[in-house]
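Troubleshooting: if your tokenizer reports a length mismatch, compare your output against this known-good record of 159 residues.
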Amino acid sequence: MSERIDQQLKAIATVADVARMVGLSRARFYQLQRAGVFPWPVYDVRTRRPVYMEDQQRECLEVRRRNYGINGRPVLFYARRLATPLTNRRPAKERPAATPRAAHRHADAVENLRGMGLARVTAEQVETALRAEYPQGTEGVDEGTVLGRLFVRLHRQNS
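Known-good structure output:
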């Protein structure tokens, strides 16, 4: 065990490194440091960064292993949650078969047609109606004319 710990240790380690070693976020590590559970770091004179020397790293790992802070008080560390098994999850909702590109490309047309009274029109219906009405594409055709023809076609289909 101590051989594995020694492999983890560095000559000097940042607060983030030590927090990762003990399995905590930096924020929680700082919180426990202020409470006296973990030792305070030393500061590098040149960079003014807080760092932990090897013996301090060992001390932090020992605190985590024993659940006993350097302040002489016991401390409980929460274990990370395991991933929820797939069997306990809610079934995923079925999504419409619309391709995101078609839905995005025809979003304005769908919105306009819904405003004209076709409350249940979908991007797929708009795509199909466009291909039927304008097999060569809508380039050069007025947008109002396109919407009018789509409305008539889709209204007939839904009636």
